[in-house]
Amino acid sequence: MSWAGPFRFLPEPSPLIIITSLLLVVSIPLILHLVIYSTTSDTFPTILLAGPSGAGKTAFATLLERGRPAITHTSQVPLTIEVSLPVKTSVASSRFRSPNDPTWEVTKKLLIHDTPGHGKLRHHAVDTVSKPQNLQGIIFMVDAADLASDTSEGPRQTAEYLHDVLLQLQKQVTDSKGSKARKEIPLLIAANKLDLFTALPATLVKNKLEFEITKVRKSRSEGLLDSGVTAKDLDIGEERDWLGETGAGTFEFSQLEEFNIQVKILGGNVTGAEGSEVKQWWDWIGGVL
Questions:
Q1: What is the 3-state secondary structure (H, E, C) of 85-124?
Q2: Of all helices (H) and strands (E), which one includes residue 264?
Q3: pLDDT range class, residue 40, cuts 50, 70, 90
Q4: CB of 201 closer than 8 Å to CB of 267
């Protein structure tokens, strides 16, 4: 009996069929690979980097990307870069994943969206908050040495910018429709330049910003009344446009917990005589991914 058995009646495949089959076997995996990796960068989690000009945002972004901060200039347009967490930094979403898992390294990749800090360009950061998509967290970088000044406009301008970012986050919650709440987007206030002698420590940075935001809330409320808005109209929109606890005289970051907004303040320095000290910021990023 022939070895072909029941297959002896089948026609022998033509060379064209054999070549076509081989091409499909080789090309399909390649096509899938290209499709998957061409869309990977769009699905990476994103961290928004905001803050006033001169705070050190772009230097921090280049430190994350290259391992060392670069000499930077005032940014005019947003910049998005792909970075990977350091080997020793763990990712919260991968705490049960084996290091031998082939997707381990992919989970440590993210996008840093660096936005300009100039007053006329801060809408880029607020717009990103209003359309979060893959946004996992916000780093608002401040100059801890500049906040120590009682004569410059720096503290007030920083507080106004932070107020607007936080208010937009709050509106994302209060304006959400239906019972499904929007996902939590935590915010880190990165107190930079702590290597400088005049810089405020993280605790005093918190107190200073709360004090300045209190003044921002008051001045904007009084500005509406001076513009001719009636007290009745002000009451109608007060809850939506008032950051934190409505009617509270003093602002505190803890008031935002009611809106599922978690604010943390951590100190560090991007540059310095002894190098960079940003481990706490790396760990925070890993914790929100």
A1: CCCCCCCHHHCCCCCCCCCCCHHHEEEEEECCCCHHHCHH
A2: strand 263-267
A3: very low
A4: yes
SS3 category, 277: strand
Tokens of 54: 């001169």
Integer Cα distance of 37 and 16 in angstroms:
32
Residue 204, SS3? helix
Q: Which residue has the higher pLDDT, 95 or 88?
A: 88
* Distance, CA of 144 to CA of 160 (rounded, Å): 16
Could you give the strand order of the β-sheet that contains 263-267, starting from the edge strand earlier in sequence?
Answer: 79-84, 109-114, 46-50, 135-143, 187-192, 263-267
pLDDT at 122 over 60: yes
- The pTM of the full predicted model, rounded to 2 decimals, is 0.78
The pLDDT value recorded for residue 20 is 74
Neighbours of 2 (CB within 10 A): 6
Mean pLDDT of the chain: 81
Q: Which residues are CB-contacts of 149 (< 8 A; sequence separation ≥ 6)?
A: 155
Q: What is the DSSP letter of 7?
A: G
Handedness of CA 218, 220, 226, 232 (dihedral sign): negative
In 1-78, which ranges are continuous DSSP H helix? Answer: 15-43, 57-66
* Orientation of helix 231-241 relative to helix 202-226, angle to 10°: 150
Residue 57 has pLDDT above 80, yes or no: yes
Separation in Å, CA 8 to CA 1, 3, 4, 17, 163:
11, 8, 5, 18, 80
Rg of the chain over all Cα atoms, to the nearest angstrom: 26
Whole-angstrom Cα distance, residue 129 to residue 125? 6
Nearest in space to 276 (alpha carbons), one of 51, 61, 107:
61
For residue 205, the tally of other CB atoms under 10 A from its CB is 25
The strand pair at 109-114 and 187-192 is best described as: unpaired
